[in-house]
Predict the structure.
Amino acid sequence: MSTPRWRTRFAPAPTGWLHLGHVLNAITVWGMARAYGGSVLLRIEDHDRRRCKPDYEAGIREDLAWLGFTPDDEAPRQSMRGDRYAELLSALESRDLVYACSCSRREIAGGAGERHLELVYPGTCRTRHLDSDTTAARRVRLVEAAQSFADVRGGSMTQTPALQCGDLLVRDRDAQWTYQFAVTVDDMDQGIDLVIRGEDLLTSTGRQLQLAQLLGRPQPARFLHHGLIRHDDGEKLSKSRGDTGVRELRNAGATAAEVIGAAAYAGGLIGRAVPVLAGDVGALFAGGASFDHLPSGQNLSPVGKVPTAWPHPHGRL
């Protein structure tokens, strides 16, 4: 009997068009999966009803197909999973792990310290015992305990979520499920073994691990946080900044392989910008790449801040 493939996911939010930063994430997700026998789940993270738009989702799907990144499976979108989120929130409430919170962000900023540029909730409503009808917002009580984990790229790390962010907001005042809660539930329910994302989300790892424990996940996910493509001022590419999108590059005449190659180069995965096909990205994470469509089938060894051969996501080859 063959060993079941481990699973990772590509999980875009339809709040804007895909740009090179998203392409770098896709390269890493599909590359690790293809190099080490994993499968890729596509998940549309549309928990934010205010910002998500159908046109953006259609654009994401179109861009992925054009680039050549084909998922092995697709999960239900987050906006369809409200009943499941509510079920698990109720289970946490039954254990006295949840409380209503009426604090606004401005109030929290006025009474809490900033640590590493992150707003820390000071626990204002933790003992206020607000009536559940007062607000739709809910927080989960976090214990002041260290969470240790091994990042596939960065090695051993330890975080203390209660000190980093305070009790975790899982539903906001508009009754919208938060990113932290939705992705933790989804990763548990959908059997995600390896979460691959940008290093800007590294600080979320400890709190998501602790939340997953509270939710009863028997085996924690592993994490891989890759580098980001940044501007000269150090800021990462972003939708809000209006960075050039994949569709704009395509409309300007770039090929899919050129866009993938540009993202791989900007992300430090290859030594120079050359076309890379989606079907070849696995070679970037398995000790070097050979691209038959280049003159003489020349080899390209990955460079930059990643090792030539990334470790297997489960610690074995």
Remarks:
- Residues 148 and 158 are 4 Å apart (CA to CA).
- The chain is about 30% helix and 15% strand.
- The longest helix spans residues 20-35.
